[in-house]
Design goal:
InterPro entries: ATPase_NBD, Exopolyphosphatase, GppA/Ppx_hydrolase, Ppx_GppA_C, Ppx_GppA_N, PyroPPase_GppA_Ppx. The protein is an alpha/beta fold. 47% of the residues lie in helices and 18% in strands. α6 crosses α10 and α13 runs antiparallel to α14.
Length: 508
């Protein structure tokens, strides 16, 4: 059966990129091809904002090379969008006509609002942030948005980007101290015009290649243990550390710096200056990287247009359903395990043996539904595979630390395995957090045992304390002997952590 494919060509001021998405078995589109060309069209805009013929030739040549790929994949509906370099060109009509005549593509020039809006859509549909400031610094423009309760409130597009800032303020490959002072003064003057930015104290969410490179440099610098940069968090000190690192090496070393694309070596410092000043202006300590950007925003709009729903109701729920289809999760069983885990936890809370916040309950519910996910690969070592799959897969709506929490709880086998799994990430958590996640893991394991035959027979769970003994009364609608056997076998993990003997009474 032929797979459904969808393609977007993003014509930026610095790079031109072709991305092909293929529909997988879960019904979602995932990136299957990503082809990039460093065209630097912004360099071909003259003082009168005319894109010179040389630049048009570069554009056509690049699109023709992409055309070979799209024809090979037999793609028909290809979205081809252009941003600042073409938008700022006064000879737009002749550029559009040349693309139409010379290639298979029809180019659409995005307005400032469209470019900013697509970035905002990408962020709210793929990250956990309900409110924040986004910044997408391209080669020739910088889009900034403020969203609150997942709704776009303000946007602004500045007619400068990393490439044009480099052209305007930096004569050599890297800025001198004097050039940095002039650049910082300019950025302050520009961004201070937006009254809605000052003192927002919200996360700054970076979009685009420069933001991604900054995150990658930091990950390499600190030997970050997780793969992937989407939803990666940096503090203001981290951003300063990267800034200092970039300015401490000469250009030849900069080009070889791990995490930095060689073609961005001469524009990364101006871009990081943008992030530095915006964090100061917003008064935030949080910088988040969204690997999803303009292309994804275009994609979300296109694929949801029939539903009149460009913003997903719940990002994590969308991600869970994708996981469920990808790994063959039995949803009825998963929800039943989650319900049993919630019932046990609430009973323990009432006795003062557990104290959970709203976030803990959300994590408990998700971890319970994903428990034993690794059996998709191998039932004998399912716990190990569960931790690896959840720890190393990007899950939209979960920050990296949250992802590890879910992986730890959903893969719980015993306290010793838990300690081995958390070993690399131990400094991310304090002792109280680790004790709580281990306890919740034991609760989930017990809840899973209560549905050992996947018949969903448990109806109610009640708990009472007799001296040092905890007695669970479990009402079932069918014979419970297989569940009873598993519970008696697994309850020791919860007993060890609560330091209490546990008895189970089953009845109809």
């Amino acid at each position: 059966m032929e797979q459904e494919k969808y393609a977007i060509i993003d014509i930026g001021s610095n790079t031109i990129r072709l991305v092909i998405y293929t529909r997988d078995k879960s019904g979602r589109f995932t990136e299957s091809e990503n082809v990039k060309a460093v065209a630097r069209l912004r360099n071909y805009l003259n003082e009168d904002n005319v894109l010179k013929q040389e630049g048009i030739d570069v554009l056509i040549k690049t699109l023709k090379s992409f055309q070979e790929v799209t024809r090979h994949h037999q793609l028909k509906d290809i979205k081809c969008v252009a941003t600042a370099a073409v938008r700022q060109a006064v000879n737009q009509d002749s550029i559009l006509a040349a693309v139409e005549k010379e290639t298979d593509f029809t180019m659409r020039i995005l307005s400032e609002f469209e470019e900013a809006n697509y970035g905002y859509l990408a962020v709210v549909n793929s990250t956990p942030f309900a409110s924040g400031i986004t910044v997408d610094i391209g080669g020739g423009s910088t889009e900034v948005t403020y969203f609150h309760n997942r709704q776009l409130i303000f946007f602004y597009s500045f007619p400068f980007g990393a490439l044009s800032l480099k052209q305007q303020f930096v004569e050599g490959n890297t800025p001198t101290k004097g050039e940095l002072r002039e650049l910082r003064s300019f950025l302050k003057e520009q961004f201070d015009q937006l009254e809605w930015l000052a003192d927002k104290r919200l996360p700054l969410i970076g979009i685009g290649g420069s933001a991604r490179n900054m995150a990658q440099i930091h990950q390499e610098h600190i030997e970050y243990p997780l793969s992937g940069v989407h939803q990666y968090m940096m503090s203001r000190d981290d951003v300063e550390e990267v800034s200092d690192l970039l300015k401490s090496v000469d250009f030849s070393e900069l080009q070889r710096l791990e995490g930095l694309s060689k073609d961005r070596a001469d524009i990364i410092i101006p871009a990081v200056e943008v992030f530095r000043y915006l964090m100061e202006l917003i008064d935030t300590k949080q910088f988040a990287l969204s690997r999803k950007g303009l292309r994804d925003g275009v994609f979300y709009e296109e694929t949801t247009k029939d539903f009149d729903l460009s913003v997903f109701p719940n990002v994590v729920e969308e991600s869970f359903h994708e996981l469920a289809i990808d790994y063959g999760i039995n949803l009825t069983h998963a929800f039943h395990v989650a319900n049993s885990a919630l019932l046990i936890s609430k009973e323990l809370e009432e006795l003062g043996l557990l104290s959970l916040e709203e976030l803990d309950y959300k994590r408990l519910k998700l971890s319970s539904a994903l428990y034993n996910l690794g059996s998709y690969i191998d039932s004998e070592s399912s716990h190990q595979h569960t931790f690896y799959l959840l720890g190393n897969r990007t899950i939209d709506g979960l920050l990296h630390k949250d992802r590890i929490v879910i992986a730890l709880m959903a893969s719980f086998k015993n306290k010793e395995v838990f300690k081995r799994n958390v070993n690399v990430y131990e400094e991310w958590f304090n002792k109280e957090e680790l004790a709580k996640y281990s306890l919740l893991g034991a609760i989930i394991k017990l809840a899973y045992s209560l549905n050992a035959t996947k018949r969903d027979i448990v109806e109610t769970i009640e708990l009472e304390e007799n001296e040092d003994k905890l007695v669970f009364s479990v009402q079932c609608r069918e014979d419970w002997k297989p569940e009873q056997y598993q519970v008696e076998k697994q309850k020791k993990h919860l007993e060890k952590q609560l330091k209490k003997t546990i008895d189970f009474k089953f009845y109809k």
